[in-house]
Amino acid sequence: MKLSEEQIKQFNEEGYIFLPSCFSKDEITVLNDAAAEIYKSDREEVWRESSGVARTAFAAHTYNEAHRRLGAHPRLITPIEQLLGGDVYMHQYKINAKAAFDGDVWQWHQDFGVWHRDDGMPEPRAMNIAVFLDDVSGANGPLIFLPKSHKIGVIEAGHDVQTTSYPLWTLDRETVQKLSDEGGCVAPIGPAGSVIMFSSLLVHASPPNISPLPRTIVYLSLCRTDNHITKFKRAEWIAHRNFEPISALNDQCLEDLIGNPSSVAAE
Ligand code: SIN
Ligand code: MN
């Protein structure tokens, strides 16, 4: 799948592109069933909220077949190669649960700010993709963006190791207010299967989910192979060391798993 000139213009201007219903309900069911199994396991890659419900499962593309296929899906990989202008590798892969009632906040941050400071990623030649595994609405803790905030580079941040179970370099309120006054503050919402592609410099956050509706989103963080990380202080399953270019699979790769749950188990 190639992006149109209009979509590329929108990305350059706003810092993100929203693609509603990019994956079918059946494809999403395959991924959701796999996520539910992963959350039940006691793998070290699964981090939990203080209530015990899953918050994030890292690196599922390395131990689950459905997520391996999503991590090399042509509807995701080809547009990112197009936007970044070269081969990409997987820097990080996570399934964020934002569970009903208990899903906790993600404070305001830029992902590249974290990858640069913590992992020594040289340049912001990296992107995020969010794939909605549930319908995302204003009610269940959507991702919130400050449009155009990707244009000003890495913003000063403080290391927050307290407010959630996940350490993050976060922005202060004054900065967030200023950026919102300038470019607005939006929450792209849509049905399960929708996709957002967003700059690794775009400032974003998400509120807690106190609704009875789950809000699972998978994030692929893709980086150009010639821009790989240079510091290795975080676990390999949080900041990957496999810098080999991803070869996109065929467009049917997830459909081929529909109704074949045994192949959803780890390979
Ligand atoms: C993130 O920014 O990495 C996660 C945000 C979310 O899942 O709500
Ligand atoms: Mn983020």
Number of domains: 1
Secondary structure tally, helices: 6
Q: In CATH terms, what is the architecture?
A: Sandwich
Fill in the CATH topology: Jelly Rolls
Distance between the termini: 27 Å
Which H/E pattern describes the elements? HEHEEHHEEHEEEEHEEE
Bound ligand species: succinic acid, manganese (II) ion
Q: Spans with pLDDT under 50 lasting ≥5 residues? A: none
- Class derived from helix and strand content: alpha+beta
- Strand content of the residues, in percent? 15-25%
The portion of residues assigned to helices is 10-25%
Number of strands: 12
- Report the principal-axis shape: globular
Let me know the average pLDDT. Answer: 94
**Can you tell me the CATH class?**
Mainly Beta
Q: Write the CATH homologous superfamily.
A: q2cbj1_9rhob like domain
Largest sheet: 7 strands, antiparallel
Strand order of the largest sheet: 1-10-6-12-4-3-2
Summarize the structure in words.
The protein has a single domain, classed as q2cbj1_9rhob like domain (Jelly Rolls), CATH 2.60.120. The two termini are about 25 Å apart. It contains 6 helices and 12 strands. Helix content is about 25%, strand content about 20%. The strands form 3 sheets. It has a 7-stranded antiparallel β-sheet with strand order 1-10-6-12-4-3-2. It has a 3-stranded antiparallel β-sheet with strand order 5-11-7, with helices on one face. Strands 8-9 form a two-stranded antiparallel ribbon. By secondary structure, it is an alpha+beta fold. Strand 8 (about 160) and strand 9 (about 170) form a beta hairpin. It binds succinic acid and manganese (II) ion.
